[in-house]
Amino acid sequence: MSDESAQPLNPSPLPRIAVLATGGTIAGAAPDATNTSGYRAGVVGVDQLLQAVPSLSTLARIVPEQIASVDSKDMTLALWTTLAQRINTLLATDDIDGVVVTHGTDTLEETAYLLHLTVKSDKPVVLTAAMRPASALSADGPLNLQNAVTVAAQKSARGQGVLVAFNNRIHSARDVVKTSTYAVDAFQSPEIGALGWVQDGRVEFQRGVVRAHTLATEFVIGANWPNVEVVVSYAGVSRIVVDALVAAGVRGIVVAGTGNGSIHASMQQALADAASQGVVVVRASRVGSGHVMRNGAAADDALGFVSAGSLNPYKARVLLMLALAAGGTGPVALQKIFDTY
Prior knowledge:
Elements (H helix, E strand, L loop, with lengths): L15 E8 L22 H6 L9 E10 L6 H15 L6 E5 L5 H11 L6 E4 L12 H12 L9 E5 L2 E4 L4 E2 L8 E2 L7 E4 L2 E4 L22 E5 L7 H9 L3 E6 L7 H12 L3 E6 L14 H4 L1 E3 L5 H13 L5 H10 L1
Helix pairs in contact: 3-8
């Protein structure tokens, strides 16, 4: 038998992975290689990012697209809408097998959770980023991008919801948070740990995602975003900010409470007054891990408050905006949504 006849008649083509660039540190550049803080984010285009990782061509057929070039601290609701709609459009076709999004680290966890709730496909969607700009000595972006494409190309990543590949770990968008201002292992899932890992082309999932996501949610991305803001409880806090937000017409307020979502008496009274006027109040915690027990630190039923559970204040804001946009009203119905997602 010749060597030619020994080859598969129909070899499987590499998967087609769309790489959507939005800017961030991974696309940042500084005056010299030792500068990892005084850089401009989002100045390196997607083609240049891909050129830095030539091995990607052995993993997938890459379809690059520049969605935006922003520092993710400046992420906007309009850009969230654009990104989610573009991902849904791409994944609805047979031409794309998965999506990788390059993003800034500052708001990555919020964008990832938004997509986790609004992407309408079971195909892999993987976000990645970098803590060091592309111009830096030992830049971490190229390896993170390599690993993100590796994960997105894996069949085992289907049905896991939106993922974050960072520093060889694979995180669920619901659980992951940024925990350091400088370290390359800045992203962690503090409460229950990573989903798995990726290294040298190998992907292993060690647990699955339990809560509903993507195709199993009731949320559809749209252009109209209810106004929801975040306030913080701390020693000596007044009610000034809460009263100002209510006067401005906000639909919801998420409070980053102390400990188990406890709230200073002055702010709690202001929030109770807000709830009596129809503003949705969600109790979260500023601690960084754990969960806020309903009625644990405040009489939620009496005050009309909702518990964020294990969501941090910023992800709780994302869920509350989507819930309100979907027509969710009243603390009982909204609590069910927070308990579900």
